[in-house]
Structure formats: C-alpha cells, structure tokens
Write a structure and sequence with these properties.
Blueprint: E1 20-22, H1 27-34, E2 54-55, E3 62-66, H2 77-92, E4 95-99, H3 107-116, E5 121-124, H4 130-139, E6 144-148, E7 164-169, H5 171-189, E8 194-199, H6 204-220, E9 225-230, H7 237-249, E10 254-258, H8 263-273, E11 276-281, E12 291-297, H9 299-312, E13 319-323, E14 330-332, H10 341-355
Parallel strand pairs: 1-13, 3-4, 3-5, 5-6, 6-7, 7-13, 8-9, 8-10, 10-11, 11-12
Antiparallel strand pairs: 2-4, 12-14
Length: 368
Amino acid sequence: MRRGAPAGGFRSGLGGTRRTVRRTIPLVLLACVLAACGSSSKSGGSSTTGAAGTTSASSSTKACLISDVGRFNDKGFNQLQLRGLKEAGSKLGISTKALESHAAGDYVPNLSTCARGGYGITIAAGFLLADPLSTVAKQFPDKHFAITDYDVTGAPFDGTEKNVEGLTYATQENGYLAGCLAALMAKQQGGKQVIGAVGGVKIPPVDTYIAGYQAGAETCAPGTKVLVGYSQDFVDQAKCSTIAGNQIDAGSQVEFNVAGGCGLGTLSTAKARGVWGIGVDTDQAFLGPHILTSAVKRVDQGIYLAIQDVQNGTFTGGRNLVFDLKNGGVGLGKTSPKVPKAIMAKVDDLKAQIIAGKITPPSTVKSS
C-alpha cells in the first residue's frame, strides 16, 4: 500500500461519507459500455492523433487524461479510460488530450503540462498518481482535477484540494460475484476445490477485487481454497504468467486477472493450461472461450461523467463519485455459455442481495 493510502481500501469512497455521492450511469452510456462500443466515432471538427494524441473540437471545454505506467495499450484499465475521454470528445464536442506515462517520474510533468495547457479538467488514471496529483492540484487551484480509484477525502489529500474529485468503484461487489461463479464452476468440475487470483501491485484497488473474490467463493462453495499472488507489476506479462502457472500447479481451476496488462499473462497461461480465466476492468471475453467472465469496472463512464460535470458547471471537488452494482458502475461481463443456468441463477440472486443491501462484501483481503 502506498504512503497515506486509506487502510482496507477506499475509506469513504466505498463506505459512505457526507461528501460522497453515488452517480448513476445514464442508460444510453451504459448501453454503449455493455456493447463494448469503441470511441472512434467521428464528429465534425474533431481529429485524433495516436493513442496519446489530441482531439480538437469547437467547445471551450478541454479535458486531459494522464495514464499510469500501464499505458493506453493495456487492453483494460487505461485503455478503457481513454475510450471514455474519446467518448466525451465525440458526444460532448470538447477538446481532449491524452498523455502516456512511461515511468512514475512522468506523472508530475504530465499533470503539470495539462494544467498549464488550459485544460479545464485533468484526470489521473489511477491510484498510483495520487501523490503527484495532490502536489499539482495545490499548484493550480483554479483548475479541476479527478482521479480514478482513489478516495480524495483521505491522505495524501489534506482537505485543501477542493478542486479534486475521486472516481471510486465498489469492485468488492462484482469481485464477490466472480468469486462465487469461479468456486461453483470448480465444484461442478470436481477435483481440488482451488481457484486463484493474480494481482498486480498490492494497492487497495487491486485488493478490493480480491477481497470480494475470496468472500464470494466462501459463500457459494465453503471450503474452496483461494490462492492469491502479486506480481508487483502492471506491465510484465511474464511475471503474472509465472504466478498463474504456480497456482495451476497447486490445483487452481480458475485464474482471476487483477493486474492490468501484466494479467494478460495470467489469462494466456490459463488458456494454455486448460483452466478458466476471469478478465478484469473491461470485458475480456474477446481473448477466447476460456474466459469464464470478466469483473467489469466502467472507468470509461467515470471519466465521461467527470468531464460532463465540468462542462455543465456542476463539478464539485473534495468528494468522491461512487460507482457500484446498484448504479451500474461495476458488474460482470459476458459469461461463458458453458455455465449452467442454476449457477447463473445463484450469482444473479447474490447480485440482487448486494444491491438491496442484504450483503456487504468485504474490501480487505484475508490472509491465506
């Protein structure tokens, strides 16, 4: 966990506070996400240059997105946020810019470049950018900032950054559903009742997924062993592949990717070894029929809505927008047709109970 990170996950972003609001994703935007629609649609006066290019439009609103070190070709977390930025450029008619961070040392320069460039909102694409964003936000108090996967009511934000908004996701909820599904499939298949999860860097946005996964498995198939490993990397696929291989050697029948681009190694190893894989953040069913489902986090719509608030003059800093199962901000992607109807019915029932407040999945990983 990084310095100053709230213990046990998002302190108020997922737990509730007077300054935390739940944001409902508009149905038209949600439909776009569920259909995995891209953001390459063209509108008059717009042009895009490269994965980290600039889109120009007639609107006076300007928005800028800074990737973490996973960069925009990670086929997940960063790429999905870039989709949200492009969607805002197209649908809202605004000017956008995206800058890739190749190393942690790029964070402050990239954030500062956007703030100095007259962008009305600059968005940091992830937890790893919290400290740099806090520094830059203080230097540009007249600019709006947002950050994905971070509770801005806790350290390193000290309460003076009223220009920063957190975009937080209750991924322990869809992680719980994924864990239930994984455990029930392992039980149906027989053999060792073991499933695995390969995380990237051990930070709260990773652990909230895994905590839910562990709890869901225990609820649906008590006694299921959940193997948890961390690559401490979001890029190097070989590291995740090695951990996944070790878990499969120990009997794992399902491998959950919670490591961004690194986790593509987890899923490719699952395919090669003939076990199920579970995708993360975006719907990764496109990787093949070995994908059981994906724990989807609609970070693209968080980006879109934050930008829309600036354009509408309704942006409010010093608070978190919370996206969960109830408002459609998290969920499961496409599920394999090989999943029996009875198992899906159980997963759907648990989803309804979470939405109703009858089940509250944990956000802290249990020691194995």
